[in-house]
Amino acid sequence: MPYPAQVNAETILDRTRTLIADEGSDGLSLARLAEALGITAPSLYRYYKSKTELLRAVHLTTQQQLTQTMLAARQDSATPYERMLAMARAYRAYALAQPVLYRLAFADVDVSGDAEALLALALPLQSALEDYAGSADSLAHLRGLWALVHGFVSLEIGGRFQRGGSLDADFERAVTAYLRGLTS
Amino acid sequence: MPYPAQVNAETILDRTRTLIADEGSDGLSLARLAEALGITAPSLYRYYKSKTELLRAVHLTTQQQLTQTMLAARQDSATPYERMLAMARAYRAYALAQPVLYRLAFADVDVSGDAEALLALALPLQSALEDYAGSADSLAHLRGLWALVHGFVSLEIGGRFQRGGSLDADFERAVTAYLRGLTS
DNA sequence: GACGAAAGTGAATATCATTAGTCTTGAAAG
DNA sequence: CTTTCAAGACTAATGATATTCACTTTCGTC
Question: Taking CB atoms and an 8 Å limit, are B173 and A109 in contact across chains?
Answer without folding.
Answer: no
